[in-house]
Amino acid sequence: MEDNRRALRKSHTFVSRSEKIDMTKYIFVTGGVTSSLGKGIIAASLAKLLQSRGLNVSIQKFDPYINVDPGTLNPYEHGECYVTNDGAETDLDLGHYERFLSMPTSRANNVTTGKIYQTVIEKERAGDFLGKTVQVIPHITDEIKRRMRLMEEDNNYDVVITEIGGTVGDIESLPYLEAIRQLRRDVGQDNAIVIHLTLIPYLSAAKELKTKPTQHSVKELLMTGIQPDILVCRTEHPLPKDLRDKLALFCNVESSAVIEAIDADTIYDVPLLMLKEKLDKIVLKKLNLKVKNDPDLTAWKTFLGKLKNPTKEVSIALVGKYNELPDAYKSIYESFVHAGAVNECKVRVVPIHSESLMDHVEEKLKGFDGILVAPGFGERGIIGKIKAITYVRENNIPFFGICLGMQCAVVEYAKNVLGWTEAASTEVNANTPYPVINLMEDQKSITTKGGTMRLGAYNCKISKPSLAYKIYGKVNIEERHRHRYEFNNDYLEQLEAAGLKATGLNPDNGLVEIIELPSHPFFFGVQFHPELKSTVENPHPIFVNFVSAALQHKLEKKA
Ligand code: GLN
Fold first, then answer.
1. 463-to-255, 413, 504, 543 alpha-carbon distances in Å
2. Active-site residue, 531 included
3. Tens-place pLDDT, residues 417-438
4. Distance (Å) from CA 440 to ligand 1 centroid
5. Which of 333, 320, 319 is nearest to 76 (CA)?
6. 454 φ, ψ to 5°?
7. 476 Cα–ligand 1 center, Å
């Protein structure tokens, strides 16, 4: 079986590449010293460099926490929940992977300890272990290794990068590190390497960069049987040669394998910084991969050029309820970065807490060129969102509502244009006489949380003429979802007669996916999450058009 797979892989792939690669190579990225060093960005940047040399690369994230997936985690805990095409609720790092690689991830790309244990316990209950004592080693580590190699089976990847969440030394990380140690032994050292990302703190009193925390972190890693191959060192100041040599000596790596990761202006600079540091070259060398292609980063550089040289600027208010926490709306912020670059326009996104919009709405919003009402759950902040929508609707200010934002736009229209003052979503008022947004029929019997919403990619058919068609330039689209409530089609006719049009519908069940107001320059609401599909090389057309509508509005305001 194993040999068949190898033979198959050898025979039918890699024709476009300079060298045949007969097995998937593994790169593990671990973190040391502190959390939040940006392992996801380093992993995604390395993946981008390898991809730009013609390799077929994927990235996955293993999270040591015990939740089965991040779907039930509060955004305060773990930032945005990212949804894949196949409907998995995942860690936000998968968003970075997609934005950098322009390749969709899937359920297999994010694994948590909860998922690992769930699988092992289910196997135990099914009698798969034949009465054996089920233990961390080998049962949990076997399951981790199986999942680490899952993508190799299906996809013919040349390289799989696996990011291990958390920090070396955490109790929860131990089974993952043990699995890496075993996997390297299984596949051979030059088929699986470890990159350790650490911090080199700068002591301003001593005016010195300090290597000791990294030395300790590597020691901790060595205690698990893992000698890192490459050190990537986060630092606020350039790492001089003598310090690199010192780190190399104490941590038992080559000097050229000590990579400086200096703070960058934007995460999108990191691939180029890593290229300059030759991270890709050292990785290829360690993995014994002979790739003749030089990195082709033309599109990436064009994007960066535009991003860094904007000729204009717009201000967008992001009305939501987690505004002190940019990670909660990560993909939205990044989509504006992509869309801004296309428009050669700096997009200043200002978070506005919806609860602060109970009064003086005009005063608080009048300086903005466009308003985005964010996705969300529950009752908190709804009134402020609706007030913001009334203001933009009445004042012809570009509006973009995502998921809950779109649902609020429907409620607002029902209340203030149709005069149904008690209209609401049943998520907010279960007894409203006008449930214009209602719990989806197949959600009514669901009581459990976690993976039970309407999740992942669904089709949408766009009608013409419409703003939606102008934006997408096609009729059939597919977008990702994460919701329980929907536009109540009992009210569709009356809302449409009053001017609010449903211009995108699910072709299978008629679910309203897009609403717009033809009488308004840009009033657009979507039940799906376009921010999950915007990438550097494929910026999302709704964001691109929203930014250009905001620019237009700004020009008209001035005139
Ligand atoms: N709370 C709404 C629903 O479940 C909207 C969800 C969202 O914005 N992601 O339908």
1. 60, 21, 6, 20
2. yes
3. 999 999 999 999 999 999 999 9
4. 11
5. 320
6. -80, 110
7. 23
Q: Please give the biggest Cα pair distance in the chain.
A: 79
Token pair for residue 484? Answer: 């329980």
Instruction: Judge contact between 114 and 100, C-beta under 8 A.
Output: no
What's the angle, vertex CA 27, arms to CA 26 and CA 28, rounded to 5? 120
> Cα(70) to centroid of ligand 1, in Å?
16
SS (H, E, C) 136-185: HHHHHHHHHHHHHCHHHHHHCCCEEEEEECCCCCCHHHHHHHHHHHHHHH
First to last CA, the chain: 71
Convert 269-325 into a string of H (helix), E (strand) and C (coil): HHHHHHHHCCHHHHHHHHCCCCCCCCCCCHHHHHHHHHHHCCCEEEEEEEEECCCCC
405 in contact with ligand 1, CB cutoff 6 A? no
- The DSSP letter of residue 435 is E
Q: Which amino acid is at 492?
A: L
Residues in contact with 128: Cβ distance below 8 Å, sequence separation at least 6, in sequence order = none
Distance, in Å, from the CA atom of 401 to the CA atom of 516, rounded to the nearest integer, reads: 10
- 228 upstream amide cis, omega within 30 of 0: no
Catalytic annotation on 460? no
| CA atoms of 204 and 429, how far apart (whole Å) | 55
Supply the pTM of this predicted model: 0.92
d(CA 362, CA 281): 55
Q: Which two tokens stand for residue 234?
A: 């986060």
With a 6 Å cutoff on the Cβ, whether 525 touches ligand 1 is no
Residue pair 172/36 in contact by the 8 Å Cβ criterion? no
Q: Can you tell me the distance from the alpha carbon of 240 to that of 360, in angstroms, rounded to the nearest whole number?
A: 54
pLDDT digits (tens, 9 = 90+) for 11-59: 333 333 334 467 899 999 999 988 889 999 999 999 999 999 999 999 9
What's the rounded Cα separation, in Å, for the pair 39 and 164? 8
CA distance 206 to 216: 20
